[in-house]
Amino acid sequence: MLLPIEQLLILQHTDQQVCEITQALCGLPEEKKACEAALEKAAKLLLAVQARAQEFEKEIKKLELEILSKKEQIARYRTQQLATRKNEEYTAFLHEIATAEQVISTLEERQLKLMEEGEALLPERERAQEINAIEQKRVNAILGTLEGRRINLEARKKELLDQRTSLSMPIEEELLEHYERLFKSRGTAVVPIEHGVCTGCHMKVTAQTILTAKAEKEMLNCPQCGRILFTEED
Ligand SMILES: [Zn+2]
After folding, report:
1. Residue 11: Cβ within 10 Å count
2. How many of the other CB atoms lie within 10 Å of CB of 98?
């Protein structure tokens, strides 16, 4: 094999690795975002259940105050009732007290119902808390792994780029530029001829091209795609 071809193949292998690493690095923010979205969803679920529970508590407290105020009203009626000497006023207070007691009983029933409904929410609340905790743990673990992967990939990329610098040093400038243009536009720059076909563009090459490649005397480009050709076939 011609020395420049050998050198370019090693360079190409390095460049392909750099490409793969760059792609993997590009995918990391997406993975991170997906993780954080899952966590956010669990947190929102928990917040929603908590908000509903708070609504119940607020409503129960409100009823509590209403009941208290009714009870105070009854106490006032009783005082006034004791003070009055008129029979019809006495009866009217009795009626007012009975009405207020009826209201209290209705309020207490509502309060009890709300308490029951609030309690029924408890398992859902616990479940949401559980899910949230699990998600938090899971996401933190993944985020840690992703960060570790990022650091490793960055380090490996730097290593490869350093290697690349020394690998490209002995290659003639014009050839290197030609290679870089091909690699950038086509993904591969140096490809073998296999079974009479350029493995870059999969077009048949002429018998003359194969012979030239086999002779290993000059650099050769695929007439169709321009890639640098070589052959290892006999
Ligand atoms: Zn080709």
Report:
1. 21
2. 12
Please indicate, yes or no, if residue 99 is contained in any of the structural domains: yes
Nearest Cα to 10, choosing from 166, 165, 162, 167?
A: 167
How crowded is residue 222: how many other Cβ atoms within 10 Å of its Cβ?
Answer: 20
24 alpha carbon – ligand 1 mean position (Å): 28
Q: 191 CA distance to ligand 1 centroid (A)? A: 8
Residue 203 CA to ligand 1 center (angstroms) comes to 6
Count the domains in the chain: 2
Residue 29 lies in a domain: yes
35 with 120, same domain? Answer: yes
Tens digits of per-residue pLDDT, 113-166? Answer: 999 999 999 999 999 999 999 999 999 999 999 999 999 999 999 999 999 999
